[in-house]
Amino acid sequence: MCCDGECRPLGWLLGLPFAFLSLLVSLIGVAVWIVGLLLSCICPCCLCVTILVELSIELIKAPLHVMEWFTSKIPC
User: Fold this and answer.
1) Which residue segment(s) compose the domain that 31 sits in?
2) Predicted confidence pLDDT, tens digits, the chain (76 residues)
3) Which DSSP symbol is given to 74?
4) Would you say residue 7 lies in a domain?
5) 9 in a structural domain
6) How many domains would you assign to the chain?
7) Which of 7, 24, 52, 68 has the maximum number of C-beta atoms within 10 A of its C-beta?
8) How far apart are CA 31 and CA 41, in angstroms?
9) How many CB atoms lie within 10 A of CB 50?
10) 13 part of a folded domain
11) Residues 6+ apart with CB under 8 A from 28
12) Structural domain contains residue 38
């Protein structure tokens, strides 16, 4: 069977709408990341731009985090 702790199809299916929403957030993260990279090239000494780029990378990873969270919460 599939119940070895790794395969959780119900959690995956329930997480799809939330993963779609987080995918939209990750697209915003991509835009922020591009702008942040451009700003860091103009002024590399700005710490706030570096923090902004790091935050945008976490936004880009959001769909993966959402799906991992959902699949871990729902048993097989």
Assistant:
1) 19-73
2) 455 556 667 667 777 787 788 778 888 888 888 888 888 777 777 777 777 778 888 878 887 887 788 777 776 6
3) S
4) no
5) no
6) 1
7) 52
8) 16
9) 14
10) no
11) 59
12) yes
